[in-house]
Amino acid sequence: MLLGIDISTTGAKALLIDEKGKVVSSSTTPLKLSTPRPLWSEQNPHEWWEGIVRSIRQALQQAGVTGSEISAIGMTGQMHGLVLLDEHGEVLRPAILWNDQRTGSQCDEIRARLGKERLIQVTGNDALTGFTAPKILWVQQNEPEIFAKVRHILLPKDYIRYKLTAEYSVDKAGGSGTILFDLKERTWSGEVLAGLDIPAEWLPPTYEGPEITSNVNVSAAAETGLAEGTPVVGGGGDQAAQAVGVGAVHPGIVALTLGTSGVVFATTESALVEPEGRLHAFCHAVPGRWHFMGVMLSAAGSLQWYRDTLAPEVSFDELIDETRDIQPGSEGLIFLPYLTGERTPHPDPLARAAWVGLTVRHTRAHMTRAVLEGVAFGVKDSFTLIQKAGLGSIDQVRISGGGAKSVLWRQIIADVLGVELVTVKTTEGAAYGAALLAGVGAGSFNSVQEACEAAIQITGRTTPSDVTQLYQQFYPRYRALYPALASEFKALAELVD
């Protein structure tokens, strides 16, 4: 039996699968998010531990197994968060999370100290508020009494690893998301650490995704019901583990998660970098591989907002079904899905959503279809950047998330991208990928690729139709809208500040 642990912003999840990849049980304990000030986002690491202890015990009980039947544990969870510990391993302050936006000035400072081009060349990424490094500088500058006590820096899931094993370690996929990593070397960058005055000894050793990092200790075993000595593997950040969970471990097979946000994940065989930093470039949880990642902030979230605001009495199925007779292109109506700003390819918090091209002929059905198409065009933005940055051909897209449930939306995306979409059997996401990584570490599989081939089953295929060429004509019009409107977005934001 294999255990996948996932610490997300919304819940602490424990997933049990057998050595063939079949899900045996799953339990999630909800977690609370704290926003003590505007733009801040924090959580209490102690609550993560309490939640995962509860979830592990419930998953074991549901499966009717004991901790001694677990052969290995894989870790995953939210990336980029900052957990600070003192010399005794005690938490110094609430964790600052990936979606915290307080560090804009620290990002500017990082670019000034290291140079933006050099930063991207070494780490694969520009300095963004979501990453870990600017959070460290913020604590240094705003909470010096806390910073003076810091002796260890961990990511959220790695705090749970520490609680399980009393050892400090981090997987290479998660570590690269701090922008303190040398992307090509797959370890901490002495140049970046020195440039930011962060002591190297505060950072833990790094491990590949399926590599055993440590073992469950006696106190954690007593709390969780696991067996002392159970090996814990490196695992991966949530998106890397999610990619393993759907089998996106080869170049040419891309993972698309269509949730509230939209994430495009493309495996690469070398440490490729998008020169302007418009894509994230991180280490994969698969040893010796890397990945590009593009993120649009309002994917299925755009449809959720549209339904809740303009048609709250109508189900999603009914709303989408109305669009079946609307021709591709929605009679010239285009939707920009920038409801919460944008990240890829426009890292602009002031970007705004819009329908462009409305006429009296347009109905609610046209507006709905335009939302579906606008999100598909937004996804294509990431695909376009990824291919220009050197990935090459994209042979298949493995789609998951709430938006993937819609047959029509899957068809629209396949037509816009011009590539086959497939769905897979498991819906457990990152926790499932973490469990597969544990299986490799335990020797149940010889490699991550073998684990994916053995455990992941394709359940559906959506191939592009003959309207792909029509969407190729509409996409440039979509691409032209942000540059045309960007200055107006900024001006509007200044009016309402």
The CATH architecture of the largest domain would be 2-Layer Sandwich
Reported for the largest beta sheet, the result is:
7 strands, mixed
Radius of gyration, whole Å: 22 Å
* CATH superfamily placement of the largest domain: ATPase, nucleotide binding domain
β-strand percent reads: 15-25%
Overall number of strands: 23
CATH topology label of the largest domain = Nucleotidyltransferase, domain 5
Low-confidence spans:
none
The CATH class of the largest domain turns out to be: Alpha Beta
* Shape designation: globular
How confident is the prediction overall: mean pLDDT?
Answer: 96
Number of domains: 2
Distance between the termini: 54 Å
Top keywords for this entry?
single chain; 497 residues; alpha+beta; Nucleotidyltransferase, domain 5; 2 domains; 7-stranded mixed β-sheet; 4-stranded mixed β-sheet; 17 helices; 39% helix
Overview of this protein structure:
The chain is of the alpha+beta class and 497 residues long. The protein has two domains: 2-235, ATPase, nucleotide binding domain (Nucleotidyltransferase, domain 5, 2-Layer Sandwich), CATH 3.30.420; 246-497, 2-Layer Sandwich (Nucleotidyltransferase, domain 5). It contains 17 helices and 23 strands. The strands form eight sheets. Strands 17-18-16-15-21-22-23 form a seven-stranded mixed sheet. β2 (11-17) and β3 form a beta hairpin. α1 packs across α6 (156-165), α10 (238-246) packs across α15 (430-442) and α14 crosses α17 (468-496). It is globular, with a radius of gyration of 22 Å.
List the helices and strands and how they pair.
Layout: E1 2-7, E2 11-17, E3 23-30, E4 42-43, H1 45-63, E5 72-77, E6 83-85, E7 95-96, H2 104-114, H3 116-123, H4 132-142, H5 144-147, E8 152-154, H6 156-165, E9 170-171, H7 172-176, E10 181-182, E11 187-188, H8 190-195, E12 206-207, E13 212-215, H9 218-224, E14 231-233, H10 238-246, E15 253-258, E16 262-268, E17 280-283, E18 290-296, H11 300-310, H12 316-321, E19 334-336, E20 354-356, H13 364-388, E21 396-400, H14 407-417, E22 420-424, H15 430-442, H16 448-455, E23 458-462, H17 468-496
Parallel strand pairs: 1-5, 9-12, 15-21, 21-22
Antiparallel strand pairs: 1-2, 2-3, 4-7, 6-8, 10-11, 13-14, 15-16, 16-18, 17-18, 19-20, 22-23
Helix pairs in contact: 1-6, 2-3, 2-4, 10-15, 11-13, 13-14, 14-17, 15-16
